[in-house]
Write a structure and sequence with these properties.
The protein is mostly helical. The chain has one domain: Non-ribosomal Peptide Synthetase Peptidyl Carrier Protein, Chain A (Orthogonal Bundle), CATH 1.10.1200.10. The longest helix has 16 residues.
């Protein structure tokens, strides 16, 4: 499945329906996400849905700050 920003926003809404997700919503600063949701739900969902592997050293804020950052990260993993 090719990644699109809309699908990232939908995925985040599935994981945390209380969030008001836009491309620029800060995941942590907004209070919508915490490390448990990231590790238990978001990362496995991204790996499964987009057939990618997320290495521990790739877990940096630049890749997971916002839905837009996640989109760019996953797109880069799909098109190295």
């Amino acid at each position: 499945m090719q990644v699109q920003l809309d699908t990232i926003l939908c995925l985040l809404n599935e994981i945390q329906p209380l969030g008001n997700w836009t491309a620029a919503t800060p995941l942590f600063e907004s209070g919508y996400m915490d490390s448990l949701l990231i590790f238990d739900r978001l990362l496995p969902a991204l790996e499964s849905r987009y057939k990618i592997e997320i290495a521990p050293w790739e877990l940096v804020p630049e890749h997971f700050d916002t839905p837009e950052a996640i989109y760019r990260y996953v797109k880069g993993k799909q098109n190295p």
